[in-house]
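User: Quick sanity check before I run a bigger batch. Here is a single chain. Can you write out its predicted 3D structure?
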Amino acid sequence: MKPSQTFDPSLHAPGSPAAEGRCSYHADQGGGGQCSGEAVVSFEDDDGQWQSGCGLALEDLVERGEIEPLGQGA
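Assistant: Done. Predicted structure follows.
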């Protein structure tokens, strides 16, 4: 399970959707569906890079056991 925390733009590469406060999770998935586009969480992906996610992405990733729920990190 990868760490997560409340969205922090300083963790993300300058100029990236995540650094601009957008949901990089759905941008990488090829569309947002119900995505609000607004990032609420920062999390590490399988490559150790920080990504961002909207509320819907957060719920999905926690449900699948891929990231820790917010407030559960060390």
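The longest strand covers residues 41-44.

User: Great, the batch can go ahead then.
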